[in-house]
Design goal:
By secondary structure, the chain is of the alpha/beta class. It has helices at residues 16-19, 42-57, 73-76, 94-105, 127-140, 161-167, 171-188, 212-224, 248-256, 265-276, 293-301, 303-306, 327-340, 368-381, and strands at 5-8, 11-14, 27-31, 61-65, 80-86, 114-120, 150-153, 198-204, 228-234, 279-285, 315-322, 351-355.
Length: 382
């Protein structure tokens, strides 16, 4: 056991991150994998490079890396990182895949780092899929992401048209402004935790009699309950309806009352607890390589209170159990829905992902007790 770990009520609570020096705000490493397609990087360069030059004039030290072979531990660990990826019309960047391989082959290579992601697409597809996959791999390697840490630009910039209409700015200017905002967010984000006792909301839609995922949550909970205020909400109680797609005005009206058109357990129990919580833990069995229907409804209907409440200081965690494989797919769905879209902070190693098929077989997974303890520790001190 490291000297920085202390025993508390049978759990091991690490104190490492409490004493770690804060990340400097005057350094930014930009990892921009070179795109082999002629001219495909031009638009991203026109948006990004002037902002980097402006930062240098302000005294910010910029380091630019374009190939995975240039990466080293001193570049990646405990750094502020901006990942900027240009894609071909086919949605490919071969150097991006080399970067992905580097992250997956070097566990903890991003330990203590904070990141943001820009994806500039050559077509209308793949930008968000590429970003979610990359965020999951970087997060698994130790990188934290502030909420809404993705700027994506499709080939036509069509994904900016709504903001363009609302602001009166051309889509390319909306793109530029979002990049500026993202850079500032990465430079200013403080990943350190608060010493205050955490309020944790755990949401599930399973039954303990058959659910390996809930059994795993119970193991994690045993290390949390003496050190945090934990509220558990079951979405199995009563009928659950998915979002009906209310108008913006109707959704805002219900959200101001901390409610939703359909009511039920989501608005009566989950929403009030979520508004008060510092941490949301989603307990997610893998159903057909997708988040379960009730959890999906909870996320979709969260839009009503998201319009009237700031989630950007809340952290998202997930416990995911698959019968066969595909836990990474579930994790990527959660990243897209709650961190990229709903502004939740994505703490390093946000997901505990296991494989267990037969009822209670999670209990036989190797080192499951120690890993559940480690995951609980991550929630408490991140």
């Amino acid at each position: 056991m490291r000297e920085s770990e202390i025993h508390t009520s049978g759990s091991v609570i690490s104190d490492d991150r409490k004493t770690k020096a804060a990340l400097p705000h005057d350094r930014l490493t930009v990892i921009k994998p070179v795109c082999d397609s002629a001219g495909r990087s031009a638009r991203l360069d026109e948006i990004l490079m002037p902002q980097l030059r402006e930062l240098e004039l302000q005294g910010i030290k910029i380091k630019l890396c374009e190939r995975a072979s240039e990466l080293s531990p001193d570049i990646l660990a405990e750094s502020r990182l901006l990942f900027a990826v240009s894609l071909t019309e086919a949605g490919v960047n071969m150097e991006y895949y080399r970067l992905l391989e580097h992250l997956r082959s070097n566990p903890e290579c991003l330990r203590g780092s904070v990141g943001g992601i820009i994806v500039d697409g050559g077509g209308e597809f793949y930008t968000k899929a590429i970003a979610r996959r990359f965020a999951f791999s970087a997060n698994s390697a130790g990188c934290s992401f502030p909420g809404k840490s993705l700027v994506e630009a499709t080939g036509s910039l069509g994904n900016f048209h709504v903001l363009s209409d609302l602001t009166g700015a051309e889509p390319v200017l909306v793109y530029r402004n979002q990049v500026i905002s993202l850079i500032d967010k990465v430079l200013q984000f403080d990943p350190s935790h608060s010493d205050a006792r955490k309020k944790i909301l755990a949401v599930h839609a399973s039954t303990r009699r058959t659910s390996n995922t809930l059994l795993l949550w119970d193991k994690v909970l045993s290390h949390l309950q003496d050190h945090a205020d934990v509220t558990e909400v079951s979405l199995r109680n009563g009928e659950i309806y998915d979002c009906r797609g209310c108008s913006y005005e109707a959704c805002l009206h219900f959200g101001e009352d901390e409610s939703c058109f359909y009511g039920g357990v989501i608005t009566e129990q989950a929403f009030p607890a979520l508004i008060q919580a510092d941490v949301l833990v989603l307990i997610c069995p893998n159903y057909n390589d997708a988040v379960s229907a009730n959890i999906t409804a909870f996320i979709n209907r969260m839009t009503s209170i998201f319009r009237s409440h700031d989630f950007s200081s809340k952290r998202i965690y997930a416990i995911i159990v698959s019968g066969y494989s595909g836990g990474d797919i579930i994790a990527e769905q959660i990243i897209g829905a709650l961190s990229f879209n709903k502004s939740f902070i994505l703490p390093a190693e946000f997901a505990m992902i296991e494989t267990a098929n037969d009822p209670q077989s999670i209990l036989q997974v190797q080192d499951i007790d120690s890993r559940a303890c480690r995951f609980a520790n991550n929630i408490l001190v991140s």
